[in-house]
Write a structure and sequence with these properties.
This protein has 411 residues and is an all-alpha fold. 73% of the residues lie in helices and 0% in strands. It starts with a helix and ends in a 12-residue tail after the last helix.
Length: 411
C-alpha cells in the first residue's frame, strides 16, 4: 500500500471516529422538523409506502402543519422508514437515534467523496487531503451529522451529483450521465429545493463550454440526463400523492409558507450577506479564503477551466438560494465546494509567500491543522455546550456574545 493510500484510510477512519464519538443530542425537536420527519418515517414503516397519499391528505387538511416539512420529500421518508425498520425502532427515541445515525454516516461518506471529486478536478492530493479533513471537522457538518434531518444525506447526494456532472462534461462515457441522473433524482426526492441547483450547473457548463466549444454533444447528453431526472421526480411524486390536484395545492402551500411563517420572517429573512455572516461565525478562515478565491477566479482572465467552473458554481448557487428563505442549514450542501475553494486559495497564498517547497508544505499543514482545531472548538462550544438546534444568525451571534441575550436559546 502506498503511503498516500495509507494516509487516506487513516484519515477517513479518524474522521469517522470523530463523527461517531461526538456527544449525542440529548433532546430532539419533537415538535418541529425532526418530529415531522420521524412521524412520516414511522407511518411508512408501519403501513408501507401505500400510506404516502394519506400523509399528503393529512398535511393538506391541517393548516398548522403547513409551517413544517411536507411529505413531498418521499426519498428521505422512505430512507428513514428503511433505517427505522433495520434498527427495529419501537419508540420515538429509537427513531430519532436511527435518523441521526443516517445523518452521521452520510457525513462520514461525504469526506472520501470530496477527496475523490477534488482529486479528479484539481489533480492535487495534498489539496484533497486538506479539503477532506476540513469538511470532516466542519462545525456545521458535525452538527447536522447528529440530527434527525435530511441535510446530511442531501449534502452527500448533491456532492455526488456535482462530481458526476463534472465527469459527464469531460468524458464521452454515458455512465456518468446515468450516475448524474440517479444522484440528482435522489437529491430531489430528499428535498425538492435541490432543483435550485440547476442555475449552478448551468454556470459550470458555461465555463466548460468556453474552454472547449467542441463538447456540445456532451452538454446535450448532460441536459437530457437532468431533464430525465426531473421527469422521473414528477412521476414519483405524483404517484405518491393523493391526486394531481392535491399536489398542485401542496406546491402552492410550500411556496406561500415563508410569508405566513413568523419564525421564518424573524430568523430566516434579511439581505444576501446573512449567509456570509453565518458561515463566517462558524468558520471564519474558511469563509474569508473562499470569498477571496471566488473573487480572484471570477475577475481573473487567465485561469484554468476547473477553477473557473468551481467558482462560478459556488457563486451562482449562493446567489440563487439568496432569493428564498435563508437558513445556513439549507446551504450546508455547498460547504464541500466552498472548502475546496478555501483550500485552493490557501495554497495560492502560500505559494506566493514561500519560494522554498518544503517551507511551503510545512506552512500549509500548520494552517490547515490550525483551522481544523478551531473548527472542532467551535462545534463543541456552539452545538455541544450550548445545545443549539437551528443555527440561525441571532442564536450564533448570541453565543459569540456579539448581541445581547434577550431570550434563552431553543434546544
Amino acid at each position: 500500500m502506498k503511503r498516500t493510500d495509507l494516509l487516506f484510510v487513516v484519515l477517513v477512519l479518524g474522521l469517522a471516529l470523530v463523527q461517531l464519538r461526538v456527544p449525542p443530542v440529548q433532546k430532539y425537536a419533537a415538535q418541529a422538523d425532526e418530529g415531522y420527519y420521524l412521524a412520516y418515517a414511522l407511518a411508512v414503516r408501519q403501513a408501507g409506502p401505500g400510506v404516502l397519499p394519506d400523509l399528503f391528505s393529512s398535511y393538506l387538511a391541517d393548516p398548522a402543519d403547513h409551517l413544517y416539512p411536507n411529505p413531498l420529500r418521499v426519498g428521505y421518508i422512505l430512507l428513514g422508514a428503511g433505517v427505522c425498520h433495520v434498527r427495529n425502532c419501537t419508540s420515538p427515541a429509537d427513531g430519532f437515534r436511527a435518523l441521526a445515525t443516517l445523518s452521521a454516516w452520510s457525513h462520514i461518506l461525504v469526506c472520501p467523496l470530496l477527496f475523490v471529486f477534488s482529486t479528479r478536478m484539481f489533480g492535487d492530493r495534498r489539496l484533497s487531503f486538506a479539503a477532506m479533513l476540513l469538511v470532516g471537522v466542519s462545525p456545521l457538518q458535525l452538527a447536522l451529522g447528529r440530527r434527525a434531518l435530511p441535510d446530511a444525506p442531501l449534502h452527500l447526494f448533491l456532492l455526488g451529483a456535482l462530481w458526476f456532472f463534472y465527469e459527464a462534461l469531460r468524458n464521452d462515457s454515458r455512465k456518468w450521465c446515468v450516475l448524474l441522473a440517479i444522484t440528482f433524482l435522489t437529491a430531489l426526492l430528499l428535498k425538492e429545493t435541490a432543483i435550485l441547483l440547476l442555475p449552478g450547473y448551468a454556470a459550470l457548463a458555461a465555463a466548460d463550454m468556453l474552454s472547449s466549444p467542441a463538447r456540445l454533444a456532451r452538454h446535450r447528453r448532460v441536459a437530457l440526463s437532468l431533464a430525465g431526472a426531473l421527469v422521473a421526480y414528477a412521476v414519483i411524486v405524483l404517484l405518491s400523492s393523493s391526486s394531481a390536484f392535491d399536489l398542485i395545492r401542496l406546491a402552492r402551500i410550500v411556496l406561500a409558507s415563508p410569508s405566513q411563517n413568523l419564525y421564518a420572517q424573524n430568523f430566516q429573512s434579511g439581505p444576501w450577506q446573512r449567509y456570509v455572516i453565518d458561515f463566517f461565525l462558524l468558520s471564519p478562515f474558511i469563509t474569508m479564503l473562499a470569498i477571496g478565491y471566488v473573487a480572484a477566479v471570477v475577475f481573473q482572465r487567465r485561469t484554468d477551466q476547473a477553477s473557473r467552473g468551481l467558482a462560478l458554481y459556488v457563486l451562482v448557487t449562493f446567489l440563487t438560494y439568496n432569493l428564498f428563505t435563508k437558513n445556513i442549514r439549507y446551504l450546508a450542501f455547498l460547504e464541500g465546494p466552498v472548502i475546496l475553494c478555501a483550500v485552493a486559495m490557501l495554497q495560492g497564498l502560500l505559494g506566493g509567500a514561500f519560494r522554498n517547497e518544503r517551507r511551503r508544505q510545512v506552512a500549509f499543514v500548520l494552517c490547515v491543522s490550525t483551522i481544523a482545531v478551531l473548527n472542532l472548538v467551535e462545534f463543541h462550544q456552539v452545538f455541544v455546550e450550548r445545545r443549539l438546534y437551528d443555527p440561525v444568525s441571532q442564536h450564533l451571534l448570541q453565543i459569540h456574545k456579539m448581541v445581547p441575550w434577550k431570550a434563552p436559546l431553543p434546544e
